[in-house]
Amino acid sequence: MSPEGTQLLLKAGRELGLDLGPHIPRFVRLYQMLVEANRRMNLTAIRDERGIVLKHFVDSLTCLLYPGFADGAEVVDVGTGAGFPGLPLAIVRPGLRLCLLEATQKKARFVASAIEGLGLDNAEALWGRAEELARGVKRETYHAAVVRAVASLPVVAELALPLVRVGGFVLLQKGPEVEGELGRSKGALEKLGGALEGVLPLSLPVGGEARRLVVLRKRRPTPEEYPRKAGVPAKNPLS
Ligand SMILES: C[S@@+](CC[C@H](N)C(=O)[O-])C[C@H]1O[C@@H](n2cnc3c(N)ncnc32)[C@H](O)[C@@H]1O
Asked: Which residues cross the membrane (predicted)?
């Protein structure tokens, strides 16, 4: 990463109230690993330095504007792709324990190698589908889930809420279009044992793009029939 990229990251971090100074070596290393991996495979669509800094690193860190992440919490990142938002969260918050879940094997392999390369002992990569994990060993295991750019709200709710313990939360990183999805998701949330806790509007540092953090609270155990089999939530969203 160039000196300009580093300065941009520091400035954006300050706008979020974060001192990223101590974490710069890891972000530089992650940047290098992403650029190198993108030469070999189609890992991420955003490939320019400014885009990686603002749209991947900083956008991921906006999750921390929600004050609910307590040290010691186990957090699952559902559909982490190349590691977002999970890797930046693991870097900046060593007290959290991140599980980065991804259905595509080559992406999960990249995330595992990034965790090793960055020396993160508070993160693990998991290759699998959320539906299968939530119907098995990881059901109602996590204190929280984070989800960015995976699917519409009812679909993501069915993937993430069953993985979270009663009392925990799901944080969805969304754009302003989520306002339209909210009205159509009440039935799905009710079926899954969840409820909308709130929507936090924010602007991405530096560029000012509009974002929304949507918080779902897990109120009751999710009925056994959810999530439905792998692929069904996306094909036939709950209503
Ligand atoms: C558009 S990418 C976004 C990746 C990352 N969250 C980000 O914002 O950069 C969506 C990812 O979710 C993964 N995914 C979709 N459905 C999934 C499921 N049911 N279980 C696990 N991963 C899933 C896909 O393989 C894909 O890598």
From this structure: none
- Residue type at position 64: L
CA distances from 190 to 52, 82, 187, 217 (A): 37, 31, 5, 11
Show Cβ contacts of residue 120 under 8 Å, excluding neighbours closer than 6 positions: 26, 87, 90, 91
Nearest CA, atom 23, ligand 1: 79
Ligand 1: which residue has its CA nearest to atom 9? 84
Taking only the tens place, the pLDDT of each residue in 61-96 is 999 999 999 999 999 999 999 999 999 999 999 999
pLDDT, residue 94, reads 98
Domains and CATH numbers, the chain: 54-235 (3.40.50.150)
Instruction: Kindly state the average pLDDT of the residues 187-198.
Output: 97
84 is in an annotated binding site: yes
Whole-number mean pLDDT of the chain?
A: 97
Closest by CA position to 213, among listed 227, 197, 228: 197
Which tokens go with 72?
A: 């010691």
